[in-house]
Prior knowledge:
Blueprint: H1 2-14, H2 16-24, H3 33-48, E1 55-59, H4 67-73, E2 76-81, H5 84-95, E3 103-107, E4 120-125, H6 135-145, E5 146-157, H7 168-175, H8 179-187, H9 195-217, H10 244-253, E6 257-266, H11 281-286, H12 298-301, E7 302-310
Parallel strand pairs: 1-2, 1-4, 2-3, 4-5
Antiparallel strand pairs: 5-7, 6-7
Amino acid sequence: MEDNKQQVKDYFSRNAASWVAEQYTDQDYCYPVGPNRIRIALHAIDKHYGRSGLRVLDIGCGGGAFCVPLLLRGDHITAIDLSAKMLQIARENVQATGRTQNIHFIHGDIESTQLQGERFDVISALGLYEYLDDGNAFLRKVKSLLAPGGIAIIDFRNRLFNMASISAYTEQEITNNTAAKLITEINTLYSAIPTEVAHEFIKTTTRISADIAADVDGSDSSIGTTQQLEPEHVGTVTATQQTPDEVRKLAEACGLTITGYYGVHPHLLVPKLNRLLPPKVFNSLSDALLPFEHLPISLIWSSKFIGVFKK
């Protein structure tokens, strides 16, 4: 376990700048997971509290992208990360807010960090859970650090998407005889689509289609060729996957109640088509599915999902 933790620490230290660039800058074939994750997390906070001035613990804060809008809201943040290089980027990013007095950075591991009896209104862990050795221990720690009625916002790699991706992950589920179980869970996610969501989907699809047509008509880029160099990462790190039902059971066992899921990184088409299309077309088309992101059905076609948990 310590070896894996060190491997994760080394990986994100070596790749701090390229990881932040991939997650938070506009790339030809990389979906902007980071900004969408932050948008959903802020919505969940507003929906639950409807006010600012909250005490927030951002675990695995990375380059501080979530800290910036929280500071601008007027919240008070404790931000922790294993990587000193990530924290350096985070410090630089929050400087522009002019509210650095409202944030406290910790270089370390949430498992061993002593927070002196503090309790938080919100705990966020975005892009972290998939690299943990012990998800149960983490959720128990989160529960102990939440104030009564507080919420935790955590994202996960979506194992259900293995059945929609038609990829090596799909083959692995079939080989392991686990595909049928995933399909059974997927079948519980179908329900009637609210009329307003259907209308928003149609409007979004129409707008995106027009934007794509204009971009492609005015572009001299060849299909399947990037216009810019995309981030390359040094080394590899293992990431785990969970299904929404697995997460719900784990959370309940740790004393947390799931209040909702949001699909993140939707796919209108299968992933292998991405680089066979002109730059940005695949991901723009995927955004047509954003109106569904708060509905259970979004968990079928999203490669990640956010769970909101209440103590």
